[in-house]
Amino acid sequence: MPPPGSAPLLEVFASYQGEGLFVGEPQTFLRLGGCPLRCRYCDTKHSWPVAPEGDEAWVTPFQAILQVAGAELDEGPQHRAISVTGGEPLIWPEFLLGLADVAGDRPLHLETAGHDLAALERVLPVFDHLSLDLKLAQDLAPPARDFLKPNGGAGLPETESDWDTLRPRQLTLATEHLKRGGTSSIKLVVTNTTSTPGSSTFEAILDDLERLGKELPLFLAPESPRDPRAAFDPDILACLDGLVAAALERGLSPRVLPQMHRSLGVR
User: Fold this and answer.
1) End-to-end CA distance of the chain, in Å?
2) Where do the domains of the chain lie?
3) Strand 58-59 relative to strand 7-16: parallel, antiparallel, unpaired?
4) Distances (CA, A) of 85 to 27, 34, 46, 77, 179
5) Average pLDDT over residues 23-29
6) CATH number of 7-264
7) Helix (H) or strand (E) run with residue 10 in it
8) What per-residue confidence (pLDDT) applies to 198?
9) Quick one: which of 70, 114, 190, 244 is 20 to 30 A from 59 by CA?
10) What is residue 42's predicted lDDT score, i.e. its pLDDT?
11) In 17-151, at which residue ranges do the beta strands (DSSP E only) sit?
12) Could you tell me whether strands 81-85 and 26-32 are parallel, antiparallel, or unpaired per DSSP bridges?
């Protein structure tokens, strides 16, 4: 059995942040395995499974920070911010809390869909930055429930109503994090599925942001073509124009930002 507070670590690497508020910043990325959500556009599907107990992927926070230090040494003497990504990091709250204890002066960034409110509320105070990836049910296949213990995935959001119910509390936690002196931003992926002309898919999210998250920068991310040399889908680009206009009408701060790391050909 893995030690208490451990988690399956897929990879640690130094690169440039390709998304969100800190785009372009040199960071060290710590990717955890395991995700119950099934985003159809996910470009890291290899991170969905959880390694078997006893696999060498399972590490303690201290073992993880040693790998972070090794990645930093390859790039220079300065500590970088650690961006914890996945998978879905929130399924490993004990690991996240333990990581904060050994991270030293490195800023900690959390990339999450925020599907588990109890875990998010518990770990968020130890992070400097929250990147909250809001989900649309149309972009998701049914969640995987088999590997989550002890409750077998009970309570996972699945329907549009589930995500609509979850979102106000997600945004409240993100704005409360700002008041504590942290930073938070919202990511919203625009896909072929959700960019249907005339669709009102995004209205509920924009309304919630107007009501609960006007202070939160909103990053609209067009779904990236599999081939980085290919052009973006024109329907997605047209949808972005409408989304930006609708966000500005509500007093929000929208920014269109494709995945920079894909354009550069780096991780």
Assistant:
1) 31
2) 7-264
3) antiparallel
4) 12, 11, 13, 23, 24
5) 95
6) 3.20.20.70
7) strand 7-16
8) 58
9) 114
10) 94
11) 26-32, 38-39, 58-59, 81-85, 108-112, 129-134, 140-141
12) parallel
